[in-house]
């Protein structure tokens, strides 16, 4: 099968790059093993952890993906990524000028560039925009730390009342601990009778608060559940992300996939790219685990880092398995004992030239690009820039392919 461009990967990077190429008239195939990191992500997108992210980007080392782009391009690709998210129906808040903060499921505050509409946020990390909120969460819910959250909100000067709720369907689910996770709760609350029951509990118990806050378990299959609950209760409804699996992350991935396909893109879901061929120094084809061979003008490697499956490590070293790309292993490669510390292995990734063309045997391959989490030279956790690098490098690669 022949396409203009074949992308290996199915996460935020691959989908962003694929949508941009498809909406510019290219025929694009996306080959993906399956779920991406979005399933684990709170879906608050980080650009860079600094009071003024774009200023901070200016002084990064030349090996950093943002330094290869330049601060001006980062700003413009970030704006275009926001536009594409909106086209996909993913409404966001935030600017590249200054970070704001989301409340995490563990009750901490984390800087972000974009948060999804409806997330409980703080504009300055010191106070919320609400002086009184009521927190509601299902009894026996596993993915949410209500007491930590109440402590955080209270310390920010907001009065919080905490309420558990139970619905007949959730009582049945509670008999099996693995059933009481975010997605199962969201599926239950998608049903009209359950939503109405929750609305009447909120109306009865919330009192005169400025907003009602729930874990992010609203609207798995129906986009407007939060707004409907708001109308039913006559209260502003906000949410706090949950631990994995993330309902908002899964919804975002599905929305981006739908958008890509609606623009003519093709997804080979459940296909792992396993090998490639070359002709005259260029990549000619990729073959998948199901025996499909795809030929194209350009190939994009957006297969993620260790979690996504793009990189693998064993005693011999770190490798990229599809193209055998050169991998840069960060210096001081010793894992630190505190798992919450940024670990050096997170900066490992494939080597690219200044335009994200992949190096194989030290030489840039003219029609093979890499973007997103598989890139070397940055630490997404320490720098809070995972999603920012994903979307900006994806759009830069798409632009270069369109202008090729
Ligand atoms: C737990 C967690 C929480 C995070 N939270 C945040 C956050 O709050 N804010 C933030 O900014 N960033 C966050 N990030 C980082 C951010 O989510 C990622 O940097 C970004 O989503 C990377 O996307 P990606 O598409 O490059 O890689 P991935 O999301 O890893 O996707 C890789 C894709 O490639 C596919 N794949 C891999 N190998 C092959 C192959 N050989 N053939 C076919 N398909 C293949 C995989 O199946 C997967 O679909 C988080 C990451 C994790 C893991």
List keywords for this structure.
Rossmann fold; binds flavin-adenine dinucleotide; 404 residues; globular; four-stranded parallel sheet; 12 helices
Structure description:
The longest helix has 17 residues. This protein folds into two domains: 246 residues, FAD/NAD(P)-binding domain (3-Layer(bba) Sandwich); 121 residues, Rossmann fold (3-Layer(aba) Sandwich). It has 404 residues and is an alpha/beta fold. The chain has twelve helices and 21 strands. The relative contact order is 0.19. The model has no long low-confidence stretch (mean pLDDT 94). The strands form six sheets. Strands 1, 2, 12, 13, 14, 15, 20 and 21 form an eight-stranded mixed beta sheet that branches. Helices cover 31% and strands 25% of the residues. Strand 13 and strand 14 form a beta hairpin. Bound molecules: flavin-adenine dinucleotide. Flavin-adenine dinucleotide binds next to helix 1, strand 2 and helix 12.
Oligomeric form? single chain
Which secondary-structure class do the elements indicate? alpha/beta
Q: Bound small molecules, which ones?
A: flavin-adenine dinucleotide
CATH architecture of the largest domain: 3-Layer(bba) Sandwich
Total tally of structural domains: 2
Q: How many strands? A: 21
Strand content: 25-35%
The total count of helices amounts to 12
- At the fourth CATH level, what is the homologous superfamily of the largest domain? FAD/NAD(P)-binding domain
Task: Give the fraction of residues assigned to helices.
Answer: 25-40%
Provide the residue-averaged pLDDT.
Answer: 94
User: Which blocks of ≥5 consecutive residues have pLDDT under 50?
Assistant: none
- Describe the largest sheet: 8 strands, mixed
State the name of the first-level CATH class of the largest domain: Alpha Beta
| CATH topology descriptor of the largest domain | FAD/NAD(P)-binding domain
Distance between the termini: 22 Å
The best one-word shape is globular
